[in-house]
């Protein structure tokens, strides 16, 4: 779906049990910027086919909004891209890459920690072939902010959902991609008092940005985002 300017969206699955994040493409003839990779190699291939059918330039850069599996497990199906991510996420993904991912491993982990069940069941359903899955850390890391050659801004915001949470701003299109930055911690780490971090979103709102896109929610206009924060 075309959102605004040169920003296109591939929506995730609205069923929360599938844990499938949306993916964005910032089109540019010099090389597009892909924001998040898809939850699996097969999901990434579906997105690639949709972008090809829409006639959009292929990605040259892949930006991780954070290290969680549903945002990065499709990276191995995107050839010839430079992967950009926050330095803290790189360390976490290097550790994730050493784990023996398989259905057997998922079962063993859930036996040790039942709270992992929903996430790990979703992983088992998402991956068609464990032999092709490779968890890829970023090949280019940053600490605070980096601007890509196409004018796309990548900025670390942190937060409780993930230490490496990153937003992507496309000033010429008036779009801010929030990833999961304002969401509470993942379900297996969440406590009854954890709530969405609306204050974080409030600090990010900008009169020059007309659209705010979260990975698991429909896009909001600036006015809708303001109303969501104030209740």
From TrEMBL:
Domain Metallo-beta-lactamase: 20-216
InterPro entries found in the cross-reference section: Metallo-B-lactamas (IPR001279), NDM-1-like (IPR050855), RibonucZ/Hydroxyglut_hydro (IPR036866)
Coiled coil: none
Record-annotated membrane-spanning stretches: none
A Pfam entry, by short name: Lactamase_B
Superkingdom of this protein's organism: Bacteria
Protein name as annotated: Metallo-beta-lactamase domain-containing protein
